[in-house]
Structure formats: C-alpha cells, structure tokens
What does this fold into?
Amino acid sequence: MGILAKNPMSKKSRHENPPQSVPESAASQEISRETAGIAVASCSVPPQRLTLFAIETFFIFAVFFLYGAWPVPDENEPNYILKAVRFWNPDWLPNDAFLNSANTHWLFYQTFGWLSLYFSPAVMTWIGRILLWFLLAAGWQRLSWTILAVPWYSVISAAAFSYFMTFYQMAGEWVIGGVEGKVFAYVFVFFGLNALVRNRWNLMWVCFGLSAGYHVLVGGWSMAAGGTAWLLQKRQDRASLLRMIPGLLIGAGLSLFGLLPGLGMDQGVPKEMVEKAHEIAVFERLPHHLLPSAFPWPMIVRMLFLTLIWLICSSLHWKRGTPGNRLVGYVAGAIVIAFAGFLIALAFPSNRPLTANLLQFYWFRLADFAIPLGVSLSAVTLFFNASQRFLRENWSEEKSGLGETVGKHAFFVIFLAVFAYWGFWQLPPMLSGGVVSGSNSLTLSWGFVLFVATCKTFRYFQFSGDETNDRKRTAAALFYASLLLYSGTLPAVLNYARERVIARPPRTVPDRFYSPWRQMCEWIADPNNTPEDAKFLVPRRSESFKWYANRSDIGVWKEMPQDAVSMVQWFETMEDCFAKKNVPDKEKWLYGLASVLSDKSPEEIAALQKKYSFDYILTEGWPLLPTLEKVYATSENPADRRYVLYKIPGFGNLERTRMMPPAWGETEDRILIPQGELLPTLEPLPPVVPAK
It folds into this structure.
C-alpha cells in the first residue's frame, strides 16, 4: 500500500501520541479524516487537487459508461427525447396522441430539448448521456472524497454503487442509464448530499430544490430525507431552522418548475376521472414501481439483505455528530419513506381508489437509490480503515504477524474466492445462457456469499478481554467482510466491458426482429410510401416506432401520458386495440396485435379505425389478416415474414399537407412469437438514410 513505509508506527507510539481530532466547525471547509472515521496516517494527498479530481472523474465516468452505454434508444429514451423534440418543434407529428399530452417535465424540455434544433435525436441522446455521466461522476467524486479523502477509492465506490443499483434494487429504480429528467435530478442530489455531509444545509436545500425542478418526486423525496437527516443530528451539530430559511426558500422556489406542471395538468378535471387515472397508473401500468404486492419476492429479499449490510457497516464506525452520520440520516429517511409505502399498501387493501391515490408518489424510489449509495460509501470507508488497521497491527516483527494471520484464514479466503467465481461466471450461463440475462441468479449467488461472510464475521467478534487481540480480531473481520462486499463489483464491471465490444441492437429488441423492424420503419418513413401526417396502429410494445418511422401512432404501452384525461383515454385505447377478449385478465396482454385483430370482424376493425382515426395498421407477420389490404411486408416468404403493413379498404391515400420531419434513427421492440412458430434470424440490413 505504500503507506506503511511512509508511516512506520509502532503500537507503543500510537498509544503515546494519539491523532488529534479536528473541530467540527472545520467540517464545512474540509472534512477531517478523523471525524470521517479515517486514520490520520491514511494519505497525504489533498482532496482539492484539480488533476486528481479530473483523473478520478474520468475513471468514474468510464464505470458509468460501461453500465449505461447501451445502443440508442434505450428504455424510456424515445418517450423523453421525442417529447423534448416536440416541445421545440410543435409542428412535428401533430396527430400523435402521446406527444399531444401534458408536458410535466418542463424544465428538462426547456434546458435540454433545444439541442433538437441542431442535432438528430440519436446524436442528441449521446450528447445527453455523456454530459450526464460526467456530471454524475463529478458529483460522486466530490461526495466520496468528502467521506473518504483517499485517492482512487471514489472509483471503487462508484463501481459498487453501479453494481448495487443494477442488481439489488427493489422497485425498478435506476440512475446510470439513458437520458431523462430524473437523471438530471440525481445529478443535483449527488451535489446536495455532498453539501449535507459538509454541513452546508442551505446549499443542500438549493440542490435538492433544483433536483425537484427536474423531477419533482426525486427531488421532493430527497428534501424529505434531508429533513430527516437534520432532525437526527444533535442540535449543536446542525444549522438552526432560522439560518436555513434562505436555502429552504430558494429550494422551494426552484422545485416549482417541477411541481406546478404536475399540479396544473388536472385542474378542472372531475374527481372520478383523476381517481381512475391513479388506479390505472398503480394497478395496471406501473405496479412494478408502485405496488409492493407486485414486487418479486427475491428483489425484496435482496433489498432487505442490503439494508442489513448498510446497518452493520454504518453502525461500526460512523458515530453521531460526524459528517458520515449525516449521510446515515439521509439513508434512514429513505428507508422510513419506503416503510411508509408498505404500510399504506397494507392499510387499505379493500379501498382501491384511496390506495392508488396514496401509492402514486413512488414511495420506494428513493430507497432503491439511497441504500446502495449508503452501502457503497460506508463499506468503502470501513474497508479502508479496517485494512489499514489490519496491516499496521500485523506487518511487524512480532510473532503474531501478517503471515500467521493470513495463514489462519487462508482456507476461508480460498473457499469464498472459488465460490464467488462460480457464482459470477459459471452459474448464470448454466441457468439462463448468459451472464447478463442471468443477473438474478448472479445476484442471489453473490448474496449467499455475503451471507456466509457476514456469519463468519460475527464469529470474530468474540472478545477475549485482551485489547490487542480484540483489535486484531475485529480488524480482520471487517477487512474480510468489506473485501468480499467490494470484490463482487469487479466481475460485473468486466462483464459490462465485454458487452460493450459486441455489436448489437438496442437491448429491448430481440436480434432476430431488429432488421425487419428497421426495414419496415424506414419504408414507412419514405414520403413516397406513406404521407407524413399519416397515423398508425402499431404493436403494443413498439415504443420506437416514432423514433424510426417519423410517423404518428395512436398509442403504445410504454408511452403513458401523465395528465388524467389523456391517461384514461390512453388506457381505453390499450384495451380496445390490444387486449385479447375471452381470456383471463392476467393473460389479455400476452398476445400480439395480429392475433388480437384476427378475432375481430371487418366491421369491428372499421369501427376502431373510425374511433381512433388511424390510416394504417402495422402488425406482426403472423397470423395474416386477409380482410385488410396489404401494403407492404418485410418479406414475401412466410417463414421470414416479421411485419406486415395494412390499410382498411376505403381509407387512407388522403390528400395531406406535407411536413418535413427530421431524420434520425435507432429502435427497440418486443412482440409475442406464436407458440410453435420457428423464425430464422435475419442478417442485419445495411443502414438506410431516411428520405428527406
């Protein structure tokens, strides 16, 4: 480590000359290592060195890049990016139902959407990703250095945070990924947490308020958790309420950018319709985010296990009144908020409208973010302190040296190393055919390793009354537990690095459907083939249709509007056009559009066309719809046919005012393959430049 050579300290000298602690008043300028729980002899590199900050930020950016750089567009990006495009270009796709709905993320559209005037959405998305990952990296580097001012440990904690956010979240929350309003919000949460740990409460409220301006729930719940952290501090260790008034007022004012659009979109709407919209969001569209009974139990168990790890790590070395303890207060606030969400779900099981009205506020979002953050930062500090203590007390000329200690635990270390390798690299491919797709098995395997390590750790906390031996035993236990916790991130990072060198379509598109989907959308995008203001009925999971085809659709599953009127109309569209009739409710969404329309008569299809004013129907290639007029198919070979474009006889081919849509591209789509149908994989088509 190099530290031992520079700081040879005998046990006697350490007891005779204990390190002096830094007064708490200095925490607002530079957190002392002693108050942060770090040995004074840890490192002589000052945290404000710009070169080190830039280098570490770059490496943290590289970690975030590995975790988030999936092909464009990724999940949610068509929704946010195309909404931003429409915000700055009101004449683009004027007939699209989703784009015509309320603009709830006004600050995101206003500050980021202007790029659409100069760049295509694909380029615009990559600009946003790179900008966001650098801002997140800078925010994380400053936060990690405030907790632990040691070079390179911010990179380790960033990898751990990315890993835990990927595999240990409960309600589907994420931070490192595509471009949308909440990622901008989390940038300011990082800087707000840095201010919190530095005891700069006014700056914290301003950052959290700006976060709420970009995403009212991310910033709003962070303000609530920040308030919890303030309440949990000793009175002498926190700012008074009077001194925080400027920050509170500015933060509240900035939050209005996110709050007012949400409050204003349902003004004058009947209460019954608003309640129905909330029920649609909670019980139909977003139960995996909002409804605890819809969470898979392994995800709940993993989150509870991670919470236990956080409690152990934070309680071992972060005492009340220290900077790290202020972060503990924030995480504790997030846990309290999530616990309140569980209580709400249990308290009103028979009152569906009331449950929906309360659960719509994403009670579990902040815990999904804060607990991985707390574990990453507390465990990395614990690991550093324990490892330094372990090496200092064992790397000596005494008989109970490092070699003897390692020898005692060698079998334990080798066993866990072998088991970890098997769990990360062998078990997932065996169970699911790939490391990424086997992430659940990967996580459960590593969770078992951590469980064994935790049990082993408690064995070493058997105090014998000998102070020296007790410290050695404690240091060894903490060292092994922390090392196990962090070694799990390395295989995950390496695996994502491997994924980045593989040419692939967006991850939401099966490889065998990507080529025909692009072929179909690019044929539609040609103004010589379809009018530019034409409206389409497309498969339910075709959220990338507008991205590729530059045409309006009547609605898809991913694009749920935010205002109550549009949401109710959207769900009615989903049920009319995509729900299979005469099957159990839990199965009604499992069928492709072609299968649903094959059960309808020509008159029923014509009635749908009249109600929703679409000109064309784009379906999967099976089954065929002989009552409709086929316009185009990606292949005439039935075995290769993936998508077919129809129009209803007597409709379409209308005279329209031609608008020139911008040209851009890349996609995602999921469709149901009929059971028993074998479809060969098509070779990717060469890129096609949309007609101008």
